[in-house]
Amino acid sequence: MNKKTLIIILAILFLPLFVYWGLTYNQNASPVAEASSDKPQIYKFSSSMCLECKEVEKIFKEIMPKYEDKVDYKEIIVDSGKDMNHSLIKKYGIKLVPTVIMLNTDGSVASKTVGAKSKEEFENCIKELH
């Protein structure tokens, strides 16, 4: 067996392993953990075709200006196809939208809400964050 053949065989065997490792290396790393924040965080998972999501968005547009200096807020559109969004969807087990995940400053889940709530209920959840 000559050198060229040996290199081709090794490439066929190991190249897929290196590609797989490269694609899955940071899969367990949480984008939330990477974004070190001294503020509580809110992730609102929604869809562009969801009517209930639009109702929840109106509520958050009303209440978030009061808390923008106290809480980090991010809306995640589940049908956008971004890789980070998919890892967050998997991490928090998002099955239905709208889902709102509220995290304390230590990264622990303070509350997980599936479906719409009233403005007062969402505001009470935000006030309980620490």
Structure description:
The chain has 130 residues and is α+β, with helices and mostly antiparallel strands. The chain has one domain (37-127): Glutaredoxin (3-Layer(aba) Sandwich), CATH 3.40.30.10. The protein is 47% helix and 18% strand. The protein contains five helices and four strands; from the N terminus they run ααβαβαββα. It has a four-stranded mixed beta sheet, with helices on one face. Helix 3 links the parallel strand 1 and strand 2. The longest helix is centred in the first third of the chain and has 22 residues, at 3-24. The N and C termini lie far apart (66 Å).
Structural class: alpha+beta
**Order of strands in the sheet with most strands:** 2-1-3-4
CATH class membership: Alpha Beta
- Gyration radius, to the nearest Å? 21 Å
> What about the largest sheet?
4 strands, mixed
Number of domains: 1
What is the CATH architecture annotation?
3-Layer(aba) Sandwich
End-to-end CA span: 66 Å
Instruction: Please give the number of β-strands.
Output: 4
Shape, principal axes of CA atoms? elongated
Alpha plus pi helix count: 5
**What integer is the average pLDDT?**
84
How is the CATH topology named?
A: Glutaredoxin
Considering the protein shown, what is the CATH homologous superfamily?
Glutaredoxin
The percent range for strand residues is: 15-25%
Please trace the helix and strand order, writing H or E for each element: HHEHEHEEH
Percent of residues in helices comes to 40-55%
Residue runs with pLDDT of under 50 for 5 or more positions: 27-35
